[in-house]
Amino acid sequence: QLPTGLYKKVLVILHDSVLPYMNEPTLMMDFLTVAYGIGGAISLLALNGLFILIHQHNLEYPDFYKKLYSLLDPSIYHVKYRARFFHLTDLFLSSSHLPAYLVAAFIKRLSRLALTAPPESLLMIIPFICNLFRRHPACKVLVHRPGGPGDMSEDPYIMEAEEPSESRALESSLWEIQSLQNHYHPDVAKAAAVLNQSLSEMEDDISGLLELSGYELFDKEVKKKAIDVPLEFEQIRGLFGKKNDIFAEHFSLD
């Protein structure tokens, strides 16, 4: 039983400062699986160590994707360890052998949560979702469903389902990304519009977007070269814009 603060400090360094120097890294299996089950930031941080044990030491974790799916909540776009989490989630969802229903559930849940995400997270998650479509073409039915979301009286996707297989994600459509095409931030709207066209085969590099911050977005907008925008579509007549204005006889606008 470790204090929460100490738990986080241990998990942050475990994957690169402890596991590589252990003769039997598999001894950490129980510790990491318990940490992964705690929830919140501790579960996110346990992913690094679990990835090493699964990838290099043949750890079998039957409910791994169910737990990963349950970690997706509204806070995931705001937490301090967002970049680390999405980097590892990208790795875990890279296998072409994953069933379509599982990937579709992740796509749908990430899209639903994106409706309340900040712009810097949206600019990362939209290319992330596009990459999932490139790896798993069977999921493209979410985008190219005949009739689209307009023909659906309600969304069959069950957000509350704990099992991805019970979420009915493959029966749904990606109306959430379509909604983001009207986002107030022009870069987000432009990124979301990519799904209206056929996706290229080459995956987007999201490494530079994982740690994008709101400050960087604001700084980029401020430094943009300003364009003069005409605000008046009719030429002013007279001093106060009225025809036959008596002031126009005595004053003029230069």
Automatic annotation (TrEMBL):
Name the Pfam families on file.
CBF
Q: Which InterPro entries does its entry note?
A: CCAAT-binding_factor, Noc4
What parts of the sequence cross the membrane? 31-54, 85-107
Q: Encoded by which gene?
A: Noc4l
- Entry keywords, A to Z: Membrane, Transmembrane, Transmembrane helix
Q: Name one GO cellular component term.
A: Noc4p-Nop14p complex
In which organism is this protein found? Answer: Xiphorhynchus elegans
Enumerate the Gene Ontology biological process terms.
ribosome biogenesis
Q: What is this protein called?
A: NOC4L protein
Entry keyword annotation includes S-adenosyl-L-methionine: no
Q: What is the lineage of its organism?
A: Eukaryota, Metazoa, Chordata, Craniata, Vertebrata
Q: Does the keyword Transmembrane helix apply?
A: yes
Q: Which residues form the CCAAT-binding factor domain?
A: 43-192
Q: Which family does it belong to?
A: Belongs to the CBF/MAK21 family.
